[in-house]
Write a structure and sequence with these properties.
By secondary structure, the chain is α/β, with parallel strands linked by helices. The chain has a single domain (5-127), classed as 2,3-Dihydroxybiphenyl 1,2-Dioxygenase, domain 1 (Roll). Helices cover 26% and strands 41% of the residues. It is built from three helices and eight strands, in the order E-H-E-E-E-H-E-H-E-E-E. The protein has helices at 13-23, 61-72, 85-94; strands at 5-10, 27-34, 37-43, 52-57, 78-81, 99-106, 109-115, 121-127. The protein has a four-stranded mixed β-sheet with strand order 1-4-3-2. A hairpin with a 5-residue loop joins strand 7 and strand 8 (121-127). The longest helix has 12 residues, at 61-72.
Length: 128
Amino acid sequence: MKIVVASIFVEDQEKALKFYTEKLGLVKKQDVTVGQYKWLTVVSSEDQNGTELLLEPNDNPAAKTYQKAIFEQGIPATSFWVEDMKSEYERLKSLGVRFTMEPTQAGPVTIAKFDDTCGNLIQIQKMN
């Protein structure tokens, strides 16, 4: 079994696409119109055949409730691995990304969290 697609709910797919590509450096992989929605995915620029992240519209009331609740509790919607925490943190800050948690050691990992401007907290992490 292989994970091919993971998803996060977003308030606005185009806004999310801009953030995830222009700020995070991910690459658009799929952009397929399906009725009134899009199947819109991004992938790592370092592994364009890797797992796709679906930027899924949160039009469902249950999705909105879930997204809002975990955001308010400070829980990240997903997590990304980084090779160099300090460099990535500084790069993202210089692009205007708003961090809600600066790099913090948590046992065997260092983590940081930021607001993706689309209703989610995202965590970056690096094994120490």
